[in-house]
Amino acid sequence: MDTGVPAAWAAGDEVCGLSYSTVKEARWTSSRWPEGHRQAGVSFTVHKILAGITDEQERFAAIATPPEGRARWSADEARRRVGRQVEHPITPQEKVSAIHTLARDEDVAATVTSDFLRRPAVVSQVKEEDRVRVVEELTRDETVAAKVTTGLLRRPDVAFRAMSDDTARHQVNHAQVERGRQAREDFEETSPVAPAIRAIDRSVEFLDLVTACHAFVAASGRVVPGLRDRQLGDDERTIVHENVARVRATLDWIETAVDTGKVDVDGELARLLQGE
C-alpha cells in the first residue's frame, strides 16, 4: 500500500537533507497553527515549542501575548511558558535543573559532587540536616565510617559532644568492653602462657574493683563538701538523685557478683546502668 512516504525515508535515510522525523515534526507543528494564528516575526522554533500547549484557545492566546516587558517571544521564554528546561538558565532553579540534566551520568555526577564538596563556601550554605544526610550516605561503607569516626573523635570538641549523647557513649563503652573480651579470648586461645597467668588475672580483677571503689569514694570526698550552704535547683537535684540510684544499683550488683560469682544483670538494672 502506498503511504506517500518515500522509500528512503521509510528506510531511515535523509531526503533533500531532511530526515523523516524532522519533516514529521514540522508537519505536526504546522497542524497546530492554522492560517490566521501564526505570528509574523515569531520563529518556527517558538511555534514548535508553544504547539505543546494542549488547549487550542490557550495556545492561540499565548503566542499573541509575549511575556511582560518583551516585544516578542524568544525560544527560552517559550520553554518557560510550557515548563521545559531552558538553554540559557537565568534563575537559580533553572540553573539547578540544568546542572541536574548535565549530571545524569553517574560518573559526571560523582566528579561534580566531589568538586563542590571541596568548596567551603558551597558546603557552608548547605542546611545542617542535609549535610548530616550527605555524611551518612558517604559513610555507609563500614571501612569509610570507621576512618571518619576515628578522625572525628580525635577532635576534642567533637568527642565531648558525641559522648554527651547517652546512646553514643553506651555504644563506645560497649565497643571497648567487646574489644577487650575479644582480645582476652584470643590471648587465652593462642598464648602458651595463658594457663599460668589465669590466677594472676583474678588478682588483677580484684585490684581493679577495689581501685574503682576507692576512686569513687575519693572523688565524692572531694566534691560533696563543696555543696555546703549551696541549694541545688529542682533539675539539678533530680539529676543527682538519678545518678545516686544508678550508683546504688551498681553497688548491689558488685556485692552480688562478689558473693555469688554471678555477674548477669536483669532488665531494670541494665536500664539504670545505661542511664535510661
State the main characteristics.
mainly alpha, 276 residues, 15 helices, disordered N terminus
Largest sheet: none
Average pLDDT, rounded to a whole number, is 79
Oligomerization: single chain
Number of strands: 0
Rough outline: elongated
CA gyration radius, whole angstroms:
37 Å
Low-pLDDT regions: 1-5, 7-12
Give the number of helices: 15
- Following the backbone from N to C, one meets helices and strands in this order, namely HHHHHHHHHHHHHHH
Beta-strand content: under 5%
Helix content: 55-70%
Given the helix and strand composition, which structural class is it?
mainly alpha
Q: Measure the end-to-end span.
A: 83 Å
How does this model look, in words?
With 276 residues, the protein is mainly α. Among the domains are: 9-88, no CATH class; 89-125, no CATH class; 231-276. Helices cover 68% and strands 0% of the residues.
